[in-house]
């Protein structure tokens, strides 16, 4: 098992805007009320509309009948026993979840022109996050990889205050580098409301993506699919996540 810091997240699901939710057909809205989070729509087989969704952190596919009256949760299977357009559906999920990561309150670590981007959920009190930060230095310093740290603060009582202090710093990237490099960060007692909102949103995103330990790492494979790793990767796994050294 990879070394990781287990976390317990107890926050509500972030829903789409009221306008977006109201645009879904009634059966899809009904499934939203049952806990499905709708990520987006795509064209399904035989005139049906498909919807990429998450439920309890797991990808789920929904289909709406052409008359708009019924929704079906699950995969569509053809006469040969194959799932309909599985590669396309998987790519849709990858793209939708990658967009959510891109829209989070991340701190860049590395060149903005790096060929490879890796997202990771980081708690200031997670020793394995700090280990990964150190292990990734050759890739980051070479300009090949940009790490994007999505800060959370739930491992210890002062985790949130430390995460807030880093986010509220005039130079969050430098503050994060100081902290992960070994200097401790003084917790911020009364974070600005905007910083609190960013931390809350990061917590909700971690929950939606089904992550339960830090560091939780997300990266794109060569085929564009979204890959996930939890815990500090060993030396053999680093090139898979960060690419060639």
Automatic annotation (TrEMBL):
The record's section on CDD domains has: DsbA_DsbC_DsbG
Instruction: Report any Pfam family annotated for this entry.
Output: Thioredoxin_2
- Subcellular locations according to the entry: Periplasm
One GO cellular component term, please give it.
periplasmic space
Q: Which residues form the Thioredoxin-like fold domain?
A: 114-232
The organism of origin for this protein: Chromobacterium violaceum
Record-annotated membrane-spanning stretches: none
The entry's function note states:
Required for disulfide bond formation in some periplasmic proteins. Acts by transferring its disulfide bond to other proteins and is reduced in the process.
Domain Disulphide bond isomerase DsbC/G N-terminal, residue spans: 22-79
Q: Could you tell me what this protein is called?
A: Thiol:disulfide interchange protein
- According to the UniProt entry, the coiled-coil residues are none
Keyword Disulfide bond carried by entry: yes
Please give the chief subcellular localization of this protein.
periplasm
